[in-house]
Amino acid sequence: MIIFAVALLALMAAAGYVALAGRVSVPEHHVGIVTRRLGRKDTAYPRVAPGNTKGVQARALAPGRVTWLPPGLYSVEYVKSVHVPAGMIGLVEAHEGRPRPRGRKLGRYVKECDNFQDGQAFLLNGGEQGHQVATLDGDTTYLINTRLFTVEMVPRTYVPRGTVGLVHALAGRIAPADRPFGCHVECDNFQDGAAFLDSGGEQGRQLAVLPGGASYDINPKLFRVITVDNVDEAEDGLTPAHLKEATIPIGHTGVVVTLDGAECAGMGAPVEGHSSFRRPWEFLARGGTRGVQEETLKEGAVLALNPWFVRVVLMPTRVMILEWRDKSDSERGNYDAELDRIVLNVQGYRLQVDMNQTLRIPETAAPTLVSEFGGTGNSPLGGVYDDPRPVQRFVERVLGSTVAGYFSGMAMAGTIDEFLRRYAETRTAFAAKVRSALEEWGVEALQTNLGAVEAEDPKLNALLQEAADEELRGRRMHITHSLLAVEEQIDQARARAELRRVDAGKQIDVELLGPDRATLLRLADAISRMDGPEIVTGGDGDHLPLMVLRDLLGRLRDMKPDKELEQGE
Hints:
The chain is α+β, with helices and mostly antiparallel strands. The protein has helices at residues 2-22, 119-124, 193-198, 280-285, 366-373, 389-411, 416-425, 427-439, 458-513, 515-528, 544-559, 562-568; strands spanning 23-25, 30-36, 48-49, 55-61, 66-68, 74-80, 82-84, 88-94, 130-136, 140-142, 149-155, 157-159, 164-169, 204-205, 210-211, 214-216, 223-226, 246-247, 252-258, 291-297, 302-303, 310-316, 320-324, 342-346, 349-360, 383-385, 444-455.
């Protein structure tokens, strides 16, 4: 019995030891990596085993749970859990799994593995070796078997505000040789790499851009993103200016030149659904053509455009004043840079003429000017071009040649006198000719101004000045005569008005008193206004005027109503 008791105690002690020795409790913020020491080896998974075979187990132990493992058969290694800081993402590399198919650079996405925390599910559901297409989000802690997976921390992709990010796919199908862009795939701004690959995404330049002012969880093993912060590393000549949002200033329109699309003999007709060229895949799918487009970008627009696909040429639509005069070097960038002072030779005299033309280029005419007069060079890149050359060439070749031809014809008129006479008489005809030349290009001619003729010979200049003074004196005299004629007309109008007023008064007296009484009343009024002595003595001493007045007043008293006489007295 004693022996049995001792054996039982020994057995119980051994069982207790085994229970305690096999008890596994993973500390907080750690995971337990299990290794089986005995058993058969799984030749399909020599490094990490998905089943309960010899070697490192894919299944890891989570903290906060007590697990019992037979001591001696298993060993457990405690490693820290993986924490991906905020502002970072985790890139995962699998050290075990199926071999990737030829041509695939990233391991396929395995949804069932719970962000790589279930290594066993990863392997049993077809997880592949190497860098994975899926990434780990930042500001999160993961319980990951570090013998199966290695996690690398990289910053999220940030695109500064006011710029765009260009995307170059490093994996995917190979695009056809005649297509410079990979086909567009909806993949949450390239954050869903699995959707990109599973939906047929292609390697190379992508049509979609990343809008500025945001950060993106993009796998750099799958996509290379070009921003203003790393554009210097680009190999195709991109600069920070290419990556700025396309801004159309007030007083301008944006003429669009597409760098991809179907062949077209003329300008591209408007295409619906591409949201002002921000969705180039829609433009291409709907038959959009390569080259200058009829559709323009309105003033004030701010657009996130792909400079690999679109070039925008700024064209002025505001009112412009072009001047034919001598210009300094600093003015050579002006739209009228090629318009020098007009110089003519008439009868051996060199004459100079200043001129200015006010015009406006409507939005509808801007694409034609860019198409015909170019100005963006042979660069394969797009972006926004504030280039004066299309307008400069139009002004020089159309407007400048029209003006030069007109004045050359005038210079052949003959004498100086004939030239000056024609110059003064044909200004209206000249303006009409300029207007007609501009209208052929859809440009509005608002005002044509010709300055005075100036000769290089001082003597001829003096004669021209004298003629101008005479013309000015003649104009002043004409204005003076015109003013006198106006004053005379005003005086005549006043006299007619006074005459009508007097006639109206006489008519009222006749209607009230009758013709005879009205006549006597006017006579008395006339006598009362006469200047002279109260008594006029004749040769015989009679006092005629006073007696006459008394008689007249007596007769008036008899003719007028009593009430009126009382009021008069």
